[in-house]
Structures are given as C-alpha cells and as structure tokens.
Amino acid sequence: MALGDAVRLDVDDEGIATITLDRPDRRNALSPAISDGLSAALDEIEDSDVRCVRLEGAGGAFSAGGDIESMREGIENDIPADERVRSLERSTNELIRRLVEFPVPTIAVVDGPAVGAGANLALACDMQLASEDAVFGFVFRQVGLSVDAGTSYLLPRVVGENVAKELVLTGDIVDADRADELGLVNHVYDGDEFDERVAEFAEKIASGPPIALRHANRLVGEGLAKSLDQALTDEAVAQGIVFETADHEEGVAAFLEDRKPEYEGR
C-alpha cells in the first residue's frame, strides 16, 4: 500500500507490518511527505491486528535526517525562525513522540546511513537491527544547528550522557561495530544474511502474545521515569488485565503440554 509518494506499507500473514521510507533520491530525508506518510502508516496499524512493525528505508539508506533542500529554501526565502520551529514541531517532533509511545513493538531496520533526525527515528523504535553497512551520526553541527528530533531525550538513555555529548559535539559518524559497542543497536548482521536474520527476529516478536507484549513494551519504556513502587503497581495492573486473556490460558496449556503456543491476540 502506497501512502502518498514517499512511504509504503505492507502487512504479511504473520501480522508483521513493514513501513518503507521510499524517497531514495533524497536518501529518505525527513521531508513533510515522509513524515505525513509515516504518520498515516502508523494510523493504519495502531488499531489493527498487526503484532510487530519493521521500519526501513529504500535505496541503501535508512534516513539522512533533516531535509537539506527545505533548509535551503527556508534560508533563501527568509522564512521566520518561529515559523520554521512550528513546522518542525508539527512534523518531526510529533512523529518521534508517536513512535516512542507506539503500542505495537517497532524495529528499525538500518541498512546504510541513519544520521541526524534519521538516527533519532531509529532510536525512537523499540529495537534496532543493523547491517554491516549501517552508519550512525548525530551530525546537526555539520549544518550549523543544535540538536532536535528528540536527541537530548533518546541518545543519553541509550549510550549515557558522556557518550551522547561526544557524539553530538563532534558529529562523528560511527560504523555498525562501534554502534553495537555503544548500544545504539541490538544486533549487527552480516550483509549476506541480513534480510533473513531480520525476518527471523521480527517473526519471533510477532509469534508472542500480542496483548501481553504490548503491555510489557509500554511498561519497560516507562520504567526509567517511575519509582519502584509505581512500577510494581503498574505491572500488577497490567498483569491483572492479561490474566483474563485467552492467550494466557493458551500459554499455560502449551507449557504444561510441552508444545509451542499459538497466540491469537485475544
């Protein structure tokens, strides 16, 4: 399914949705067309039976971040700074917030550059899988800018404050192995087996109990902002909901019968 001319959405029989950023001529930079298409894809998925989301880029890049052409137009047309900030808030900021809070587990599939806001787009997903050709960079300084798109929130939570400052202040590009060492990605896969390993990973997520995993995903995402008492209380509330599901009954029965459970999302 094409969502505008910049984003494609495909859902397979296993409940795995693949969202593809499809502007390879601009290295999938976060233009309004990309942001609107991605938001529309998330709208299609949120209340559906989808169990897992893959987010990837077409044409050898995940996302080159901010749209430099739009920046140039803003400068040449002397668009006021406050108007450009409001545009950023309406598009990129809302998109990052939506991805961070999205209830269905999301996987960033990074094969090629993920830089600037594009790196944050990957970090806003729940998990990140990289090929050997993946590179990451928080390169805002290269175009004379501070950080945006959630850098100050997402990056320190993943790599720690000191490393986050280094990556931002130097603008260094890190390869897949270094990204793995820093914790920017969950796994790095060889190029010749990348597609297969990504598919296996997504299938493992999708085969789980959807209701329980949505709650678990949300609770872990919220955990750093809570006290222990609040976390324990919220976990108990969620578990009370999940205890009532058919999937819980199926999981217990499958365990006792020593077989693989077949979860239906009920």
What report would you give on this structure?
Helices cover 49% and strands 15% of the residues. It folds into two domains: 2-206, 2-enoyl-CoA Hydratase, Chain A, domain 1; 210-256, Lyase 2-enoyl-coa Hydratase, Chain  A, domain 2. The protein contains eleven helices and ten strands. It has a seven-stranded mixed sheet with strand order 1-2-3-4-5-7-10, with helices on both faces. A three-stranded mixed sheet has the order 6-8-9. With 266 residues, the chain is α/β, with parallel strands linked by helices. It has helices at 32-46, 68-76, 81-101, 117-123, 151-159, 161-170, 176-182, 194-206, 210-222, 228-243, 246-256; strands at residues 2-3, 7-11, 16-21, 52-57, 106-110, 113-115, 127-131, 135-137, 173-175, 187-189.
Q: Give the overall form.
A: globular
- Broad CATH class of the largest domain: Alpha Beta
Number of helices: 11
What is the level-2 CATH architecture name of the largest domain?
Answer: Alpha-Beta Complex
Strand order of the largest sheet: 1-2-3-4-5-7-10
Low-pLDDT regions = none
Largest sheet: 7 strands, mixed
Give a short overview.
The protein is an alpha/beta fold. The chain has helices at residues 32-46, 68-76, 81-101, 117-123, 151-159, 161-170, 176-182, 194-206, 210-222, 228-243, 246-256; strands spanning 2-3, 7-11, 16-21, 52-57, 106-110, 113-115, 127-131, 135-137, 173-175, 187-189.
Set down the secondary structure blueprint.
Blueprint lengths: L1 E2 L3 E5 L4 E6 L10 H15 L5 E6 L10 H9 L4 H21 L4 E5 L2 E3 L1 H7 L3 E5 L3 E3 L13 H9 L1 H10 L2 E3 H7 L4 E3 L4 H13 L3 H13 L5 H16 L2 H11 L10
Parallel strand pairs: 3-4, 4-5, 5-7, 6-8, 7-10
Antiparallel strand pairs: 1-2, 2-3, 8-9
Helix pairs in contact: 1-3, 5-6, 9-10
Protein name: Enoyl-CoA hydratase
Family: Belongs to the enoyl-CoA hydratase/isomerase family.
InterPro entries: ClpP/crotonase-like_dom_sf, Enoyl-CoA_hyd/isom_CS, Enoyl-CoA_hydra/iso, Enoyl-CoA_hydra_C
